Amino acid sequence: MPEMATNEFWKTLKPVDPVFQPDALKDVYISGAVTDDERYYVPFTETVSSRPLWISPSQNKWCDILMAKGAGLVNRHYHPHEVFAYTISGKWGYLEHDWTATAGDFVYETPGESHTLVAYEHPDPMRTLFIVKGPLIWLDENGKQDGFFDVHQYIAMCREHYEKVGLGAEAINKLFR
Rounded CA gap, 55 and 63, in Å? Predict the structure, then answer.
C-alpha cells in the first residue's frame, strides 16, 4: 500500500480494484535502482557495467542502468531493433554521432543503427537507463559482424555475477516479465 495522503486533492479517491487482470504479472519495483552498491552492477566490459532492472526472455528485451566510473567503452555494435536511453549522470556518446549526452538527456536509437558507445571522464559516473530490444550484433573495426549478444547471454552473465557476489543467481529471475 502506498504512503497515505495528507493534503493532496486526491486523498479521498478509492484505488482501482482489481488492479491486475487475471493473467497479468506483478510489477517490478526496485527502490534505489541507482545505487552505489557495486554488487548490483554486472561487468559488461572492462570499463562498463550493467544494473539489470527488468528482463523479458520471451521478447528478447531488457532494461538496465549502464555505468562507467571513468572513461568507458562498449564494443562496436549494430541494433536491428530500437533502443531508448535516458542519461541519469555523467557524460557519454557514440563516436559516430555529433552529440554528447549528459544528465537529463534522452536518446532514441532507430533500428538499423551501428555505433561505438563511449563514456567520458566526468566528476560523476556515467549512468544511463537503457531499454534494449533484440540483440546487439558485435562489429569488428571494419563494421563487419563479429558475434552477437542477446537477452539469453545477458541473463547468463547476470546470474553468474550475482552468484559470485553473494546476491544469488535466482535474484535475476525476479526481474523476468
Answer: 6
**pLDDT tens for each residue of 104-162:** 999 999 999 999 999 999 999 999 999 999 999 999 999 999 999 999 999 999 999 99
Q: Is the pTM of this model over 0.90?
A: yes
DSSP secondary structure string, the chain? -PPPPSS-TTTTPPPPSS-S-TTPPPPP--TTSS-S-GGGSEESSSS-EEEEEEEETTTTEEEEEEEESSSEE---EEESS-EEEEEEESEEEETTSS-EEETT-EEEEPTTEEE-EEE---SS-EEEEEEEES-EEEE-TTS-EEEEE-HHHHHHHHHHHHHHTTS-THHHHTTB-
Amino acid type, 13? L
